[in-house]
C-alpha cells in the first residue's frame, strides 16, 4: 500500500507549530509507517508534488507566501490551516495597525540598535503585502487546527483521524486559541 | 396560571419582574451570554442569549419571563447562530489570543470554545484602535473591546462614578473615558472599582499582573463557560492548588 503523502510549510509563522508537530515524539515513528513527507522544512524538498495532506503554518505577509499557499492548495487534496497565524493572522497581523512603510522604517531605519540603516531592496526579496491575511482569505481551507501552537496531541489526533478515514475532530479540552 | 416557564421543555419557576435570563440562571440552566452580568441593568447588545419564544428570536436577558412561556434555548440552529455572532465579534476587533494577557480568562474566547469555533470565518477587519496606557494600574486596549458596556454600567451603577461611555456609531463605535483629556489616567477609576475588573475580554486589564497564572491553568483552560459556578477570576495571582 502506498503511503499517505504529507507536505508542510511555514509561511508568516515562527516555526513553533512545526516544533509542536515534532512534539508527537515517538508517535512520529509509528506515523512514518503510514505517511511520508513531501515538501517540508523537515525534508528540505523545495516544491510540492501531488499530496494527500498539506499542513500550513503561518499567515500571508508577502507575495511568496501567497505563491506557496496556492501551490499547496493545488497539490494537496486536504489543506489544513495550522495554528493561530494561519487562522487569523496571529502575531504578525499586529503590524496591520501600521503601513508597510512605517514597519520598514521602524525595523531598518529607526529601530533600537540598528547599524547601517537601510531598507532592504534586493529584487529577490518577496514584496510585502500591505496587510497580513489568514489563509482562508485566499484559498479554500478544509480543516482548522487552532492553537499557538496546537499541541503535539492535537496534531496526532487530526492525523490519526484522517489516516483512519474519519472526519477529524478535537475533544473540547484540546481546543485552544493560545 | 402559576409563575413558571419552560426552557427546552423543562419547567422552571420565576418571580414577577424576572427576565428569562434571571430565571434560567437561578434554575442553573445555561443560556450563553457575554454582555450580561447579574446585578447590572440588562443591556441586550451581544445577542448571544438569543432564544426563541413562540418562534420569535428575543434576548433572554431583556425579555421578562411570563407564565407558560415556551423558550427554545439549546437547539442546534441557535447554537449555530450564536457561534456566528462570536465569529463576528472576533473579526471586527483585534482578538489575537496568544498576544493577550486575558487569554484563558476571557469570556469571548470561552464562548468560542463552547461553540466549537475554529476560525473567524469572515475576513478580519483589523481595525486600528487606540490603546490608553495612561493609568498607573490599568490599561485600556480598545483592540479587544466588544462594546458590551459592562464597564460603563459597573462604573455608574456599582462604583457610583461615571468613567466610561460609548461614542460613535456602527463600525466607529468605541469606548471613551469621561475626562477632559479623554485619558484613563485622569479619571477617578481605581484598581478596586468594579469597572476595573468587569471586562469580559482583555480591553481593561490590570497592569503588572498579566502572566502570574500561566497559560493552560486559567479559568477556561480548566472549566467550561457553561458551568454555572465559574466565577470571574482576576488576573492577579492567588495561591495555586499545587503550590
UniProtKB/TrEMBL annotation, chain A:
Q: Which organism is it from?
A: Thiothrix fructosivorans
Specify the superkingdom.
Bacteria
Which co-factor is required? [3Fe-4S] cluster
A Gene Ontology molecular function term for this protein is:
oxidoreductase activity
Give the protein's recorded name: NADP oxidoreductase
All copies of the NADH:ubiquinone oxidoreductase-like 20kDa subunit domain together span 14-161
* Keywords on record: 3Fe-4S, Iron, Iron-sulfur, Metal-binding, Oxidoreductase
Q: Which InterPro entries match?
A: Hydrogenase_assoc-protein, NADH_UbQ_OxRdtase-like_20kDa, NiFe_Hase_small_N_sf
One Pfam family per UniProt: Oxidored_q6
TrEMBL record, chain B:
Q: Where in the cell is it found?
A: Membrane
Describe the location of the 4Fe-4S His(Cys)3-ligated-type domain by residue ranges.
77-116
- Which CDD domains does the entry link to? fer2
Give GO cellular component annotations, separated by semicolons: membrane
One matching Pfam family is Fer4_15
Instruction: Name the cofactor(s).
Output: [2Fe-2S] cluster; [4Fe-4S] cluster
- Annotated 2Fe-2S ferredoxin-type domain residues: 1-77
Q: What is its main location?
A: membrane
- Alphabetically ordered keywords of this record: 2Fe-2S, 4Fe-4S, Iron, Iron-sulfur, Membrane, Metal-binding, NAD, Translocase
The highest taxon in the source lineage is Bacteria
Record-level Gene Ontology MF annotations: 2 iron, 2 sulfur cluster binding; 4 iron, 4 sulfur cluster binding; metal ion binding; oxidoreductase activity
The entry assigns this protein to a family as follows: Belongs to the complex I 75 kDa subunit family.
> Under which name does UniProt file this protein?
(2Fe-2S)-binding protein
